Amino acid sequence: MRTIVLCPVLLLLAVGFSIGESPKQKGADSPRTAEGERPKAGKEPRMFDVDEFFQDYDANKDGSLSKDELPERFRHNFASLDTNKDGKISREELEKGFHNLQARRRPSDFIFVLIEMSDCDECCTEELQLVYDALRKLDRNSNGKIDVEELKVAREELVQKRIDSIFKALDSNKDGQISKEEARGGIKRHFDELDTNKDGKISRDEMMKAGAAAPAALKKEAAPKSGSEK
Q1: C-alpha span between 203 and 131 (Å, rounded)
Q2: Which domain holds residue 130?
Q3: CA pair distance 45, 191, nearest whole angstrom
Q4: Is 79 helix (H, G, I), strand (E, B) or coil?
Q5: What φ, ψ does residue 203 adopt, rounded to 5°?
Q6: Does 43 reside within a domain?
Q7: From the centroid of its chain, how far is CA 46?
Q8: pLDDT digits (tens, 9 = 90+) for 154-180
Q9: Residue 65, SS3?
Q10: Domain holding 67: CATH number?
């Protein structure tokens, strides 16, 4: 869907482009033996020990785990683990689906990761302060909650700031529009999509509509397709 690319275009042009080194091939810097071969890696540690888990929780020692045998914190995805739907989890099912024991991660979990896993409290505090300041600005009525309307207003302001940055960088004749000659980078590549009225220039209004349309387009793209659309 075309509109999906527009919001990243605004973001990239607002913060500037940086060119990094090309990613190296996997193992390119690993040491070699005298024969020119890479040394074999040692045995990797096991991420999850099925035997230990069964020893801890298979109370009746029947070689399978019922839902009741699992601690409460592991029961949320029992149905996903029980692939053959026989009401119990076998060793094979657990080996293949042990990742389902973990609760589904949420985007907001990064806050708890910052708090719990920080190896630099000064750096972590700085990052958390940035988040805290942003959340306080979102809560315009200072009621301790963020509602949908506050989020929409904040999004519009953020997009507007990015557009201001783009026009400051590209609108060389300061006429409030970006011509094809002035366009650069992503704006130039997607010029025809952004120029919705086809007058050969991109106005602030056209840019604003492109930025505002992107979240809805992404949401529609991410929605599961119906049987007839697959």
Answers
A1: 32
A2: 2-11+108-217
A3: 51
A4: helix
A5: -90, 170
A6: no
A7: 27
A8: 988 888 999 999 999 999 999 999 999
A9: strand
A10: 1.10.238.10
